[in-house]
TrEMBL record:
A GO MF term: ATP binding
Organism: Ferrimonas sediminicola
Gene giving rise to this polypeptide: coaD
Entry function: Reversibly transfers an adenylyl group from ATP to 4'-phosphopantetheine, yielding dephospho-CoA (dPCoA) and pyrophosphate.
Protein name, entry field: Phosphopantetheine adenylyltransferase
UniProt-annotated location(s): Cytoplasm
Superkingdom of source: Bacteria
Length: 162
């Protein structure tokens, strides 16, 4: 039986912390689908197509990782992918309450699906896409937080917005 996991998020931009969890998840499951949500309410830096493109570029060498954009409920996307596991990242205790609520709602909507929490490597525990965007917007160095392909895209987008 093939074990399929979904790692969902907006990935705006996809960080080295995200990449760490993708790599580690790929070792645990037969297939990992990185589900990139539209999430217009968050006012993303990049549109969905660009976020998918960037994620594909930095995971191209991972045979069992697939990148897909989606809209709507995560559980519906997971069902369509025939996934039985959701992967969620926890950086700090502050993430837990929100993630715990999400896991409960997802369990209510799709009782057969499990949620697994992974913590990033210690060097990535303080990284968030929002923080990276804020630092980049103010001209700070984000090179240690982003794959070079993503760093270049962020720099170009920030220059366009200035």
């Amino acid at each position: 039986m093939t074990k399929i996991a979904i790692y969902p998020g907006t990935f705006d931009p996809i960080t080295n912390g995200h990449l760490d969890l993708i790599k580690r998840s790929a070792k645990l499951f037969d297939k990992v689908v990185v589900g990139i949500a539209t999430s217009a309410s968050k006012q993303p830096l990049f549109d969905l197509d660009k976020r998918v493109e960037l994620a594909k570029a930095i995971t191209a060498d991972m045979d069992n990782v697939e990148i897909q954009g989606f809209t709507g409920l995560l559980v519906d996307f997971a069902k369509a992918q025939k996934a039985d596991v959701l992967i969620r990242g926890l950086r700090a205790v502050a993430d837990f309450e929100y993630e715990f609520q999400l896991a409960g709602m997802n369990r209510h909507l799709h009782p057969e699906m499990e949620t697994i929490f992974l913590t990033p490597a210690q060097k990535y525990t303080f990284i968030s896409s929002s923080l990276v965007k804020d630092v980049a917007f103010h001209g700070g160095d984000v090179s240690t937080f982003l794959h070079p392909v993503v760093e270049q895209a962020v720099a170009e987008e920030m220059a366009r917005r200035r």
